[in-house]
Structure formats: structure tokens, C-alpha cells
Amino acid sequence: MHTNISSKSLEFRRQMARQRALLNAVTREYFLKMGFEEVETPCLVPAPGQEPSINAFECPFVPETPEGKTCTLYLHTSPEYAMKRLLAEGFEKIFQLARVFRNGEIAAHHNPEFTMLEFYRAHADYNDIMADTEGLIQLAAEAFELGGVIHLGKDTVRLDGSFERLTVRDAFFSRTGLDLDDFNEGRALRSAAQARGITIPGDSEKFDDIFFQIFLTEIEPTLGRERPTFLIDYPASMASLSRLKPSNPKVAERVELYVAGIELANGFSELNDEKEQRARFALEQEERRQNGLKVYPLDEKFLTAVGKMPPASGIAVGFDRLLMLLTGTEEIADLFLFPARDFFE
């Protein structure tokens, strides 16, 4: 049973607030010294992200004046669309500590309202953004006086050296013996995994579904256990908002950062092809429709901006999860003065 956070001692709550303030200060110091500009974009937007796994909070807008227009707005699930519009307008190095909202997410590592650190570089790729992320985490660890290591549960993770960079293909092969290059459809991947004793629940034959079933049980829990791991080069079907790798279009220049088996960040060498982005959104809309989820409208201003963006890279860091790691906290709710779970107790 969870302990209601309001029953925790006043000193504990104050200490968590101080730790959050310290990480805020370190983050701003780091990016400002790196020549980034801090920006602030709207929380209320006409179109949230299209990801099939993320649901937005709806906010009906009812104007006070007769000439106003009643419409549905959404609390943003990420500031990504707005920040990329800024890149298209000519901003070059930007960051934001944004409050974001995702409906239905309450768990050990999830709160429906949380802080996302997002930052973007024009004329850069995912290698540059990985270096930025590594530098921030190492600076934060120094500020928290961790001696180059973090302790979380049974894990001791070293932060004072280079972070591991591991391709998805190599991660699968080293953990399961499966070479993803040998598979282009789900049925064969399911059969090969089951032959190795890997349980695949459900009856889906979609490659992506079976990939993630294997990933969640066999791969993800092993990542970042001794040092943080940048997992890179996802299959092209999972490109999301990233470009395909010029030297190997079978994979996308997408990166996720893992520490002690916890996903901490998700970033890309950004796609800047409007036609391709529109096609990907159409596929995600259809997936939402098939899954019985609300199909959100397209953000036409964002799509126009995609075609005007320079080559760029960006990443979203779960700021609260980073704070969990720096403080050795295992429940994200402990970091909030008023966590959402307390609303239901």
C-alpha cells in the first residue's frame, strides 16, 4: 500500500522541494552556459501528439463573449510541436522546463502532471544531443555530491565516464540471440522468440507489437545497470518524429536513454520532411482508431513548420525521473508536494 504523501514529515517534503529547486538551477545554469535560450510555450493547444500510447486531457473552451468560438483544446503531452515551430522560425538552441500532462498515467514512475525538460539544436544530429544530455547529468550528479555514482535499489550506476551507446539490433542479439535484420514481419519474429523460450502474450502478428513484447521483458530491464545506456537506431517502423539513418534507411536516428532499467529520455535526429511526417501521423491516427481511442486533429501549423526546419536534433528528458535517480527515490510521487495519487485516497 502506498503511503499518502501528505502524511510524510514536513522535513521530508521540504527536502524534496529543495532538491527539485537545485536541479532546476543546475539545468538552467548548464544550458545558459552552453548558449541555449530558455523558451516557454503554451500548455493549452488545439492538437496534442498522435502517439497511440498517450492520451491527452481535453479542455473545452467556452468563450465569455458571443463572438468567441467554442472549441476543444488539450493540455499538451509535450512541448515538442511548439518548440519545433520555433526552430523553423530561426531559433537555433532552445530549452524548456515544461509542465506536461498525460491522461491515465499513475504508477511508480508516472504522474499525470509532470515536468519535461526538452531541448533542441539546429544544424545538429542525435550524437550532439546525446553529448548534451550526458554533460547535464554529470553536472547534476556533481551538484548532488554523488561521487560519480548513483544508487537505486540494488543498482550502482557510474556516471563519471562515457555513457554506453548501444544499437537496438545489438541489444536484441546480445540479450536474446535474435538478429532483427533476419526479420521483416511479426510471425517469424514471434516463432523465433518462442523457440528461445520467450513468452509472447496475445495473438498479434504485427512486427512492432511483438518487438515491444520482447523488448519490455528481455531488453529494457537490462539497460543502464552499470552505466547509463543510450539505446540508438530503432527499426524504421518506430521512427516516430525522427529521420531515417542516411547510411542505413532500415533504422531511424532515434535514441532513448536508460539508467537502472528506467527510461529517462527519448530523442531524435529530427525529421524535416512535411510529406513524410503527414504520412506517419496518418498511420498513427489509424492505429488510434483501430484501438478505439480518440483520434486527435492534425496540427497543420506544426506540419508546415516541419518542412521549414533546418537539420536539427532534440530530446525530451523526464525531469522527475532524473530527480528520482539523483535522490535515490523509487516512487515518483515522493517528489511532488501534491502527487495525483493522493487525490484518490
Tally the beta strands: 14
CATH class category: Alpha Beta
Describe the main β-sheet briefly.
9 strands, mixed
Structural class: alpha+beta
State Rg.
21 Å
Q: Tell me the name of the CATH homologous superfamily.
A: Bira Bifunctional Protein, Domain 2
In percent, how much strand structure appears in the residues?
Answer: 15-25%
User: H/E order of the elements?
Assistant: HEEEEHEEHEEEHHHEEEEHHEH
By CATH, the architecture is named: 2-Layer Sandwich
Q: Would you mind describing this structure in some detail?
A:
The termini are close together. The strands form 3 sheets. Strands 1, 5, 6, 9, 10, 11, 12, 13 and 14 form a 9-stranded mixed β-sheet that branches. Helices cover 34% and strands 23% of the residues. The chain is globular and about 60 Å long. The mean pLDDT is 94. It is of the alpha+beta class. It has helices spanning 10-33, 80-89, 126-143, 168-176, 186-195, 207-219, 274-290, 300-306, 319-327, and strands spanning 37-38, 44-45, 58-61, 71-75, 93-101, 113-122, 149-152, 155-158, 164-167, 229-235, 244-245, 248-259, 262-269, 312-318. It has 9 helices and 14 strands. A hairpin with a 2-residue loop joins strand 12 (248-259) and strand 13. 37% of the residues are buried. Helix 1 crosses helix 3 (126-143), helix 2 packs across helix 8 and helix 7 (274-290) packs across helix 8 (300-306). The protein has a single domain (5-43, 76-163, 227-344), classed as Bira Bifunctional Protein, Domain 2 (BirA Bifunctional Protein, domain 2, 2-Layer Sandwich). The longest helix has 24 residues, at 10-33.
